[in-house]
Design goal:
It is built from 6 helices and 13 strands. By secondary structure, it is an alpha+beta fold. It has a single domain, classed as CNF1/YfiH-like putative cysteine hydrolases (4-Layer Sandwich). A 6-stranded mixed beta sheet has the order 3-4-7-6-8-12.
Length: 248
């Protein structure tokens, strides 16, 4: 049983400070029609805008958030922006951070890694979106660098993402990671089709360790096989679920 589980989401299981709240949505509890059924929170996937707006309203009401999350225009890059930002301009970014209470940091995913960060004092939080491109380019380091704390004071949690048995990649992707860190070889297993099965979770842990963040939780899902979550690789046309963190 997941901690504080609900049909439309659950909290992260990690020793975050009491002031820090988290939530991961599932695909249940919304109004979107197939193939976006039902709690699709992404406006960029072809779903009707009115349905997504209603889904976002439901999320805000369920979590009793003072403000709607400030959603990002995610582009598989490394930009991490500070909240709050002007609601008139949605930044092209793959992460956000804040020191202000009541401003939820959120990322949308459907196989990529959602990574949450907090310091042990609970005075700062961040949410990162990491596909293989962003992970290789350094989005994790960009997120961690926003913290003033020593690295041993930062906690990380990796949310639902595609797992190694479901994530087949080519040699070129393996080479990118192995050239950056030879330990990355242990994150790839040969596939039956002559390619590689990549563990994005283990690659993310390597990145975190490289920059001094050793305390990492989560990472036990496979969106490629778990129908509770949207999966782009599994379904092609699909919605997006959200991973949020905020200071109460």
């Amino acid at each position: 049983m997941r901690p504080q589980e609900h049909s439309s989401g659950f909290e992260a299981e990690w020793p975050a400070p009491p002031s820090v709240r988290t939530w991961v949505t599932t695909r249940s509890g919304g109004v979107s029609a197939p193939p976006y059924e039902s709690l699709n929170l992404g406006t960029h996937v072809g779903d009707e805008e009115a349905q997504v707006v209603e889904n976002r309203n439901r999320l805000q009401q369920q979590l009793q958030l003072a403000a709607e999350p400030q959603w990002l225009n995610q582009v598989h890059g490394t930009t991490v922006v500070e909240l709050p930002f002007s609601p008139a301009v949605i930044p092209r970014a793959d992460g956000c951070w804040t020191q202000q209470p009541q401003f939820p940091c959120a990322v949308l995913t459907a196989d990529c890694l959602p990574i949450l960060l907090t310091n042990r004092r609970g005075s700062q939080v961040a949410a990162l979106h990491a596909g293989w491109r962003g992970l290789a380019a350094g989005v994790v380091a960009q997120g961690v660098q926003r913290f003033d704390d020593d690295r041993d004071q930062i906690l990380a949690w990796i949310g639902p993402a595609i797992a190694q048995p479901s994530y087949e990649v080519g040699e070129e992707i393996r080479e990118i990671f192995c050239q950056q860190d030879e330990r990355a070889e242990g994150c790839f297993d040969p596939s039956e089709k002559g390619h590689w099965l990549a563990s994005m979770v283990d690659l993310a842990k390597l990145r975190l360790q490289q920059i001094g963040v050793e305390t990492v939780y989560g990472g036990g899902w496979d969106t490629g096989t778990d129908s509770d979550f949207f999966s782009y690789r599994r379904d092609g046309i699909t919605g997006r679920f959200a991973t949020l963190i905020w200071i109460e």
